[in-house]
Amino acid sequence: VTATAAEPATAAPTEVAALSEHWAERLDICATLTSVDHKRIGVRYLVTAFVFFLVGGVEALVMRAQLAQPANDVVGPELYNQMFSMHGITMIFLFITPMLSGFGNYLVPLMIGARDMAFPRLNALSYWVYLASGLFMYSSLFVGQSPDAGWFNYSPLTANDYSQGLGIDYYALGLTLLGISTTIGAINFIVTIAKLRAPGMTLARIPLFCWAILSMAVAVVFALPALTLANVLLVLQRSFGFHFFDPASGGDPVLWQHLFWLFGHPDVYIIFLPAVGIVSSVIATSARRPVVGYAWLAGATAVTGFIGFGVWVHHMFSVGLPQVSLGFFAAASTVIAVPSAVQVFAWLATLLTGTPVFRTSLLYVLGFIVLFVIGGVSGVMFAAVPFDQQVTDSYFVVAHFHYVLFGGAVFPIFAGLYHWFPKMSGRLLSERAGRWSFWLMFVGFNATFFPMHLLGLLGMPRRIRTYEGGLGWDSVNLLVTAGSVVLAAGVLVTGVNLLVSLRRGEPAGPDPFGGDTLEWTTPSPPPPWNFDVMPTVDGVSPAWELGPAPSELASPGVLPGGHLTPATSTVTAAPEAVLAMPHASWTPLLTALGLSAAFTGVLLETWWIAISGCLGVIASLAAWHRPGPEGARR
Amino acid sequence: MTAVAALSGPTDGRQTRGLGWWAMGMFVLSEAVLFSLLLVSYFYLWSRQAGRWPPDGISPPDLSWPTLMTGVLVASSIPVHLAVKAEEDGDVARARGMVLTGAALGFVFVGLQASEYVRTAHEFTPRTNPYGSMFFTVTGFHGLHVCIGLALLLWGALRTGRTDRARRLPVLALYWHFVDVVWLAVFTSLYLLVAL
After folding, report:
1. Which of A221, A464, A545, A564 has the highest local Cβ count within 10 Å?
2. Chain B contact probe: residue of A14, A243, A536 with most B CBs at under 10 A
3. In which region does residue B65 sit, left (phi positive, over 0), alpha (psi from -120 to 50) or beta (all else)?
4. Cβ separation of B126 and A244 shorter than 8 Å?
5. Do B5 and A244 touch (CB under 8 A)?
């Protein structure tokens, strides 16, 4: 860490006025619907995803109320099936992934020293399509035909003969639509991190959070097509009479399982990797030192993303596959624990060798480490085929993946909220409420999910609506339900904390926690153009090393002459070009509306709606690429 | 001191591999995975079939027309490649002509495929069995990509020579070459391996 007396470069008032003229957006409804500012889009992602989190949480509470006692009758079997299916779909697809995308959208350009994402309009489109797919899937609730075959939607239950309503169609079409959003978003992240980094931010100086987002995005590019394909084939089978998964006509239901888990297991890492990035950021800032083993952590991130593609069959150990493939996938599933352990040790070493400040964000990170280790250990247990076959489809599995997903992703998400809310809003959250929220959530979480291990070992299958008394499950189930109420209370405390602090929180200032990355060098909240003077970077902790840039790294300067951001080379981050970024536009929203109409048309098998939707998409894309102001990208 | 710092306006158009090329590269990668999995699914269903493939007495595909289609589509990549070179040399008229030549070959391919469909549909349809479903899904999905590629090429021809923005032709060419390569995999899996 070097401290220098040299004044950082500042922009002249006339230049700031010019920036404001080019970048500032109004706050009215039209400006909101047309905005392409990555910070507004990021906040939008975060808020929308959090709402879906609350909805998914309510669904979980309904299930817990139903299971609190044997032979209970809070909800009927049809609704119960829809509840657990929508709970999984919501938490995985509509909450965790978009929530982490929200952090990525907001933070990546700030952390790499850019003024926006590489494709701001695609970014807006990505959000609108996500919102549309969420509303699309939830519209099923109002017609009483939500997906009800679980979040992995196994064939042949999903064939027309066994699932007649619209539920499965909502699932297949909704997730295909969402896949468009996720793919666009991932490509945007990759190009942004590859091309828009500040001069001097070489590959070895990319913030770990951005490495994590990059690994996630690459995993999306390779994993998501499997889910999209599975769903497209399912739509073709259900709506058009094709044969893929129906054994009676020569199809094979196991094909669905392979395709689903070929996506589904990498998806665990798509969820987990950005959470890891949050953890690294919070730990470096809290421990007040750079993370120990930067290269090991960046490498572990990439290796996890890679091995994640070789373990999908451990979800199918009880299907009856050849012994050889079970052996291979058991080995791969054991190996993947190694990079995760490397990460945990690097974080612990950072905390031990630093001088940590125990704010709420660090509490959530410590909670994450404890829960993730427990979830990781039960994960390695599944790699042992005989054990896996014993507990498949029992509550042991439910316990395990909640430790990995809730412990491994939701706790880091909460750490991220406490860490970056001040940057986004300009106000601090209440630490007191934060500590309450953390302890309620930590105790509630363990009271909810730890006993589920026991329920699984006692033979309680997952996805059952009710059970008879006297099987030894009664008191444990009551404890689980009580735990879920405590957990919900903890979440609620943070929700209230967010709302109240938005109005009444203490002013945060630009850098309340002494962070190490570039977002902390901007005001809170940052201006629409992010940086007055475009930064250069000469270390892994640029906010701690602000000094005169070496002579070969001249700053691109203020760039006051338009909607501009610099582009650099992929490996060495040498300045390459200055890009004119697109302005606000209606076309992303219109494209998303067209897509929604097309998918609704297919859902209802009303072809004029589907065709109108497609024409709408084509028209919107044509308007999107209409020649604009001289030099502006689209 | 680099040249960039002195610039006040955009310099996007100078990049040979701009953001658009990167984005298309990632998109093509994702699409490549999709097509690979589609073909893997095809082989999977084939492997689950007890009897011969194609099943239910469907005759193996005739190779003559598909071979012609392969030749036409592979040939179409050459003028598209030359168009990129011509645009680099600043020869806009030649670039436009080459793009249109590539597109014309693309249209011939679509026409040949349509007639192939008409002939095939007499024997089996997507609803007949998994073979029919896979045959029409794979070729239909590829055909859809050819049509999108054609729209992109025509649009590119229209806009070639406008120097206002980043270069588009390398981006469009990347997509077109990809659609070509996918066909080679489709041709091998659905025709060669079944007929030989």
Report:
1. A564
2. A243
3. alpha
4. no
5. no
The identity of residue A90, as a single letter, is T
- By CB atoms closer than 10 A (0-12, 13-18, 19+), residue A229 is buried
Mutation target among A19, A117, A221 for the B interface, most CBs of B within 10 A: A221
Strands (E), A407-515: none
Q: Which of A23, A186, A34 is nearest to A116 (CA)?
A: A23
- pLDDT for position A632: 59
Chain A residue closest in CA terms to B28: A221
**Is the preceding peptide bond at A523 cis, omega within 30 degrees of 0?**
no
Q: What is the DSSP code string of A282-338?
A: HHHHHHTSPPTTHHHHHHHHHHHHHHGGG-GGGG-TTS---HHHHHHHHHHHHHTHH
> What is the residue type of A138?
Y
- pLDDT at position A532 is 92
A56-60, A313-317, A351-355, A362-366: lowest mean pLDDT where? A313-317
Q: pLDDT by residue (tens digit) across A124-158?
A: 999 999 999 999 999 999 999 999 999 999 999 99
**Cβ of A243 and B1 within 8 Å?**
no
Q: Does residue A81 contact residue A394 with C-beta atoms inside 8 Å? A: no
Count of H-run helices and E-run strands, chain A: 20, 2
Instruction: Give the position of tokens 């209970």.
Output: A72
Write down the pTM of the prediction. Answer: 0.95
Show the DSSP H helices in A354-410 as ranges.
Answer: 360-383, 385-391, 395-402
pLDDT digits (tens, 9 = 90+) for B56-75: 889 999 999 999 999 999 99
Q: What is the interface pTM, i.e. ipTM, of the complex? A: 0.93
Tokens of B98: 């080459």
Average predicted confidence (pLDDT) for chain A? 92
* Crossing angle of the two packed helices A97-112 and A120-142, in degrees rounded to 10: 170
Q: 């893929």: which residue's tokens?
A: A244
